[in-house]
Amino acid sequence: MSDDIVNIEINGQPVTAKKGQMLIEVTDRHETYVPRFCYHEKLSIAANCRMCLVEVEKAPKPLPACATPVMDGMKVFTRSAAAISAQKATMEFLLINHPLDCPICDQGGECELQDLAMGFGRDVSRYNDRKRVVKDKNLGPLVSTDMTRCIHCTRCVRFGQEITGIQELGTVGRSDQVEIGTYIERSVDHELSGNIIDLCPVGALNNKPYRFGARAWEMVAKPMVSPHDCAGSNLFGHVLRGKLKRVVPQDNEAINETWISDRDRFSYEGVYSEDRLMAPLIKVDQEWREASWAEAIEAVRDSLRTGVSHEGDALGVLVSPNATLEEMYLLNRIARHLGSQNLDHRLRRRDFSDQSSDPDVPSLGMPIASIDSLNGVLVVGSNLRREVPIIAHRLRKAALAGADVGFVNPEEYEYHFASAAYVDAPLDRFAEKLAGVVAAAAETTKTNVPGSISKILADVKVDETARSAARILSENDRSLILFGQIAARHPNFSAIRRLAAVLAELTGAQLGFLPEGANAVGAHLAGILPHRGPGGVELEEQGRDALGMLASPRSVYMLFGMEPDGDLADCALAEQALKAADKVICFSPFVTQSLLDCSDILIPLGTYAETAGTFVNIEGAWQSFDATASLVGDAREGWRILRVLGNELELPECDYQNASEVSDALAAELGSGAIDSALSSRAGISLQSTDVADLTLDVPMYAIDSVVRRGKALQSTQIAAETREGGSEA
Amino acid sequence: MSIGWLSEHVREEIDHWVAKFPDGRHRSAIIGALQAVQHENKGYLTPELMDAVAAYLDLPKIQVYEVATFYSMFETEPVGRHCVSVCTNISCMLRGSDEIVEHLERKFGIKLGESTPDGKIFLKREEECLAACCGAPMMMVDHIYHENLTPEKVDKVLDTLD
Q1: What ipTM was estimated for this complex?
Q2: Among A167, A172, A173, whose Cβ lies nearest the Cβ of B60?
Q3: pTM, rounded to two decimals
């Protein structure tokens, strides 16, 4: 038997455990429940709640299971008289100062303290003195506080220290005066801080927007997938009588572990924004009027038929990268059926010159969980914490475990770990700076670069920072280049991507992309691209890309789930093109003045919470979900609207009965053909400095899509305020 | 920026404490740092000073607040310039510390934990054993021990303060 294994006995059952494991890990694995408050699998051990006391043979006193390492031959009793009496005594102490206001507490019904008090509490309190009262803290718009309920488990404090890396909460004062708080009033601002709501085992930290909204047992939990970023965090939506009341994480070790970003948690408020489009609207003689669904679909059909009758090229289709795979596939089919190849989801991209060498799908190139065990990462053009908070968390884990992490960014964003190199790459000289790193890599690895590039690299200045950035990749065997959204939105994107690809080749690093939106991968699979059909099949006749179809205006536009004044690289260009068009058909959950100004038909679309669908994340996982909430007003699920429209347009084989039939049809079309996520860029590069003065490349975290922009609580956070003040240009 | 609140001397003092602990354990120097800062600031700490210590040690501000609010030696509100702590632990209590406290409270018209309105005297809140049981009852005035107290002796000590 290996030295690492010890034999112990739990309640008379012999079990084996790894040396150094804590008792509670072993009991948990063998489904022997030991009550606890402060212990949490993902956090360090504090052993300050004392609820997990168990009896260990030959130990004079009960021992905390969370902080007692296993020893060979240990005999543990978790339900013996001594263990139970210790647990009951702890519970009695914990309840001394707890207000027992469960009937008015949001945590009631899902409270660890309440549950354990049922098991270990006395029915009558022996405590006759005054209970302590603690003033509530204002932690900002996301987390509500009732600090009198706090039992000082310090999970929230440790979360700050260990998970986010910035300790915002602490234990202030001592003994019976101790309080959890910030001391000086301030909000908790980290983009993952909403997770302290789930960590808090009592009702001290709760969900502020949800406050007094529902009782836990009245709601139904339905699985959802994050609609805002490419990680595809797993969520549960809690629904009361068809209304989405709150969003909580669903454990998935492969993607989001037990955390979710505040954006995923609180964006649901946007679903119930006051400017939801409640019924189809049609513009007749410059006057808007409500229409029935039949009328509206007919109007769309007729607009498409007449507008596109002689030439498919007259139609331009712009699709949100947050649309579901099903919606995208149907849009692809409809547009191609009408003879138009002008469809695109890459709404904020500015440089399409090298799109023919795009990979079939953008990909991380590895499972998300593997980021933890990388030992060298270079982030290129990404405000990662704001773009994909869950990936940023994984990256921090890797960095804390010893990985070298470097950045090529226009700004030194705060990551709460020591970076191994920071290449300051101002936006107008971004390609040149990245070229410096490539040249350094060529120098250190003594490898030749492709001829066309080597000439350009010869003139690039290589400095020490560039060398250390290159070494991160060349000297580590598990290295990754994370290509972010700032780089993807850059006017010189093709050159930057080519350089990143060469850098990956030189150093043996993996090149991973972090595309915008929840379903950019799905959009590539479904063929929401002007030059490719489903599965990355090259089209003979290529259409116009997102920018091109606005720069040379079309006569008919279909906008799906996106807002022309917020979701595009060049909103002013869009306004001109849309106003000049004959017909603009908007499928949108919301109605705004700018939509009313620019469009002719408005079709009320269900949001991510109200539709069944599939998102494909950057590791290529197809994650399907059912509709969580009831549709607001007369809105309909996107795939249903498009199916009916398809039928009206006599699209063959378009009688899908549910969303999964649509995705199955796409899967069948994709067949078993290998999807190639490798990039084979042949782009020529130019290191000319580019004029980027007026461009928003770092889109603020809470302005990324139409739903988030309407999340009231998110919009009142410090993060939102900072990006507003600092202007959108970072 | 906030480091500017710290004097040259205080910085030297903090460096001295940091050097005593292993690399990466500079969090342990908070106590020493706060003592030095409080000493230079008439016996109490302000948020600005605590932030300055946090900035100087490169630690989250809250970790400094935690220490400052935990230890009774640190004051986070303005107090009188002379700090008077009367031991009320068992030996001193048996030898009449209650009388001494009563005398002080009557003399200055304030309770333990309060300062005189003229900002001269601060009666430290209930003090635990200061390890001078052989001279009980005792008090500490500005870090100096006075033992075998009687009300008269207390008056004599405190009346000479400026």
Answers
A1: 0.88
A2: A167
A3: 0.92
